[in-house]
C-alpha cells in the first residue's frame, strides 16, 4: 500500500476514536468523574508522546533551534485560532455539562465555531501521524496510541455537552464523522506534500504540529479534566504519562 494511503488510513483510524467517544456519549450516561479521569489520562499520554517521540525526533533531525521555533510557531498559531473561535462560541467545546456550550439560539454561529474548533484540535495530530511514515519506518505506534486514547474522551466529553445543549444527532455525528474524514485527509496530504522533503523541513513541521498539540492539551483537555476531578487529575495524568513512556521504551 502506498505510504500516502497508509497515512490517510491511520489518520482516519485515529480520528475515528472521536466518533466512538461520541457514540458512547449519545447512548450511555457516563459519570462526569469517569470522563474527567479518561481525559486526564489521555492528556498525560499525549504529553509523553510529545516529549519522548515527536519533539525528541524533531530535535535530533532538525536541531534545537529549528525545533524551538517550530514549537513556538505551532503554539502561537493554535492559540490565535482558538481565541478567534472562542469569541464565536467555541470556548467550551470539550465541556460536557448542560449550559456550558452555547446553543445556536443563544449564540448564532456557535455550532460552526464548535465544529471548526474540534477540527483545529484534530488536524495537527493527523499530520504528525503522516509524517511518522515519511521516513519509511512505519507509523509511530506510541504517537498513534496516544492520539487514539486522547481522542476517545475528547469525543465523549464534547458530544455529551452538545447533546445536553440541544444539538441534534445529525449535527453531533456529522461533526465527528467529518473530523474523522478530515483527519485522514490531513495525514494523506501531509505525506503527499512532504514526501521527499529534507529532514530539517520535516522536523520543523513536526515541531509545529507538536506545539499546537501541546497548546491544545493545556487549553482544552487539562481544564476539563481538572474541573470535573481536580483531586485526582494530576495523579491520573501522571499515570498516563508513565504508561506511554513505558510503551515507547519497551
Summed up, what is this model?
The chain is an all-alpha fold and 250 residues long.
Description:
With 250 residues, the protein is an all-alpha fold. 82% of the residues lie in helices and 0% in strands. It has helices at 3-27, 32-62, 64-90, 110-134, 141-164, 169-194, 199-229, 233-249. The longest helix has 31 residues, at 32-62. The two termini are 27 Å apart. 55% of the residues are buried. The model has no long low-confidence stretch (mean pLDDT 80).
**Strand count:** 0
Amino-to-carboxy terminus distance: 27 Å
What portion of the residues fall into strands of 2 or more residues?
Answer: under 5%
What low-confidence regions span 5 or more consecutive residues with pLDDT below 50? none
Number of helices: 8
Radius of gyration: 17 Å
How would the blueprint of this fold be written?
Layout lengths: L2 H25 L4 H31 L1 H27 L19 H25 L6 H24 L4 H26 L4 H31 L3 H17 L1
Helix pairs in contact: 1-4, 1-5, 1-6, 2-3, 2-5, 2-7, 2-8, 3-4, 3-7, 4-5, 4-6, 4-7, 5-8
Amino acid at each position: 500500500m502506498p505510504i500516502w494511503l497508509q497515512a490517510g488510513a491511520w489518520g482516519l483510524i485515529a480520528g475515528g476514536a472521536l466518533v466512538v467517544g461520541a457514540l458512547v456519549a449519545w447512548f450511555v450516561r457516563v459519570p462526569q468523574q469517569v470522563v474527567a479521569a479518561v481525559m486526564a489520562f489521555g492528556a498525560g499520554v499525549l504529553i509523553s508522546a510529545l516529549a519522548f517521540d515527536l519533539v525528541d525526533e524533531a530535535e535530533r533531525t532538525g536541531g534545537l533551534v529549528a525545533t524551538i521555533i517550530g514549537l513556538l510557531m505551532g503554539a502561537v498559531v493554535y492559540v490565535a485560532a482558538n481565541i478567534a473561535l472562542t469569541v464565536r462560541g467555541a470556548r467550551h467545546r470539550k465541556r460536557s455539562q448542560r449550559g456550558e456550550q452555547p446553543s445556536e439560539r443563544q449564540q448564532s454561529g456557535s455550532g460552526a465555531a464548535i465544529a471548526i474548533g474540534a477540527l483545529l484540535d484534530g488536524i495537527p495530530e493527523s499530520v504528525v501521524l503522516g509524517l511518522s511514515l515519511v521516513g519509511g519506518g512505519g507509523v509511530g505506534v506510541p504517537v498513534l496510541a496516544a492520539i487514539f486514547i486522547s481522542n476517545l474522551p475528547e469525543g465523549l466529553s464534547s458530544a455529551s455537552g452538545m447533546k445536553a445543549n440541544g444539538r441534534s444527532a445529525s449535527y453531533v455525528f456529522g461533526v465527528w464523522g467529518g473530523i474523522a474524514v478530515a483527519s485522514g485527509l490531513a495525514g494523506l496530504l501531509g505525506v503527499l506534500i512532504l514526501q521527499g522533503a529534507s529532514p530539517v523541513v520535516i522536523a520543523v513541521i513536526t515541531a509545529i504540529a507538536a506545539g499546537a498539540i501541546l497548546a491544545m492539551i493545556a487549553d482544552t483537555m487539562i481544564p476539563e479534566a481538572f474541573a470535573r476531578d481536580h483531586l485526582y487529575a494530576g495523579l491520573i495524568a501522571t499515570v498516563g504519562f508513565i504508561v506511554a513512556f513505558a510503551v515507547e521504551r519497551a
